[in-house]
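Dear Dr. H.,

I hope your travels went smoothly. While you were away I took the liberty of generating a structure for the chain from your last submission, since the lab meeting agenda had it listed for discussion. I wanted you to have the full record in hand beforehand rather than looking at slides cold. The sequence, exactly as received, is reproduced here:
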Amino acid sequence: MEGMSNRAYLGILNYGIDLAKSLRGALTAAAFIGPAGAITGGISRYIFWRANGLGDGKLGGIGAILTLVGFLMQLLSPLVSVLDIPVR
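The corresponding predicted structure, in token form, is as follows:
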């Protein structure tokens, strides 16, 4: 590079290497995120289609069961701590 010091040239070279690393990381992330988005998008459309066909009572029952399961999962850790249950 004409008219440029070695230090400036090395700075540009390092920037190019860093840029290549970040582009590789972005492409790797896109390679995993893209298919994952396609799969979850397909599943969510199917779930939405199934939920539209359910009656209000069934949908309410499923919601109540999911709420209880979530509550029990959050209760598990403090309960193990309070009852002094050994965990491997």
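Two observations you may find useful: The two ends are 62 Å apart (CA to CA). The chain is about 85% helix and 0% strand.

With kind regards,
E. W.
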